[in-house]
Amino acid sequence: xxxxxxxxxxxxxxxxxxxxxxxxxxxxxxxxxxxxxxxxxxxxxxxxxxxxxxxxxxxxxxxxxxxxxxxxxxxxxxxxxxxxxxxxxxxxxxxxxxxxxxxxxxxxxxxxxxxxxxxxxxxxxxxxxxxxxxxxxxxxxxxxxxxxxxxxxxxxxxxxxxxxxxxxxxxxxxxxxxxxxxxxxxxxxxxxxxxxxxxxxxxxxxxxxxxxxxxxxxxxxxxxxxxxxxxxxxxxxxxxxxxxxxxxxxxxxxxxxxxxxxxxxxxxxxxxxxxxxxxxxxxxxxxxxxxxxxxxxxxxxxxxxxxxxxxxxxxxxxxxxxxxxxxxxxxxxxxxxxxxxxxxxxxxxxxxxxxxxxxxxxxxxxxxxxxxxxxxxxxxxxxxxxxxxxxxxxxxxxxxxxxxxxxx
Length: 408
Description:
Elements: H1 2-32, E1 41-48, E2 58-63, E3 68-74, E4 80-84, E5 89-96, E6 102-109, E7 114-122, E8 130-136, E9 147-152, H2 153-158, E10 176-178, E11 194-196, E12 205-208, E13 211-212, E14 231-239, E15 252-257, E16 265-274, E17 292-303, E18 318-329, H3 341-344, E19 375-376, E20 382-384, H4 400-407
Parallel strand pairs: 1-7, 6-8, 12-15
Antiparallel strand pairs: 1-4, 2-3, 2-5, 5-6, 9-14, 10-11, 12-13, 14-15, 16-17, 17-18, 19-20
């Protein structure tokens, strides 16, 4: 019986392995498709040279980075078309209709944007004749009432950031302030110190690839802080955003990560900081702050070859992998008063203040009492004692070993 069980368990394990491979391939295929949680749409109207609408025109949208067709629809009776759930990136829309020349429009879709390519005019001719329409670059957002600002990958890679924390770029936008003492913030997921339009740090809402990314327990930190090298772009919406973002009272930050393309790309980097490379701190006496800060990592992206599913001529599955690590040894953020030379000789007169002790008003704050003479009340507060003359400890009362240590 035990051997029978063992053989069946072996078959079960093999079955589980095969099932795991199938499930893994299925999930890989699924996750290679964009998550339909964004609000990007592309729309327009097809017309002829006289301005009359053209119904039933074939609309094909192609992802230029992945070199594959994303969607194909037809224009309605009014010549209009709308493509929903389009991921951020570079696209070409091809419009075809029998008896007309083919028109091609190239444009960029940003995160949480609505692109209107306007009226696309088709000229009479053969479908095989293609006419490239000038690239669409709308300067004003006319489809919504949102007041928003976009920071793209070029800005993130070229603007200086202390510590490579992309949250610091919020200060480049109108109406955004920070209460942080320094942008050198190594607690990357903390977003409590930046304020939008005078709002609190706990009134902001963050989205990562369309999913909520703010800790609802404290409303001040992100669940996942993506590396700046993995972010394609992010949009900061300040007012009049859609009801789907109604939880936020201040601003909404929508982050879009990068994805793979039809070609393979890779990057390796290291950012090295050391106090030896910095200017000498003239206010630090002989104790210089010790800073050791290393950020290193890399990324790799491309497409996944799968027989009969994702082939060199028909790429369907893509990936992007990024890893970043930080090794740091930061100087302490605490401060201490450095005593002057007189204190080493027992003279504590510089410690005396102009205020009296609360429970021993006959003495100034900073008074040094002779050991064994201090009196206290039931709560432990000092009520009196015998002070040293001139607030100076006689050298005769000092331990010689302690005096030698103070000299060092």
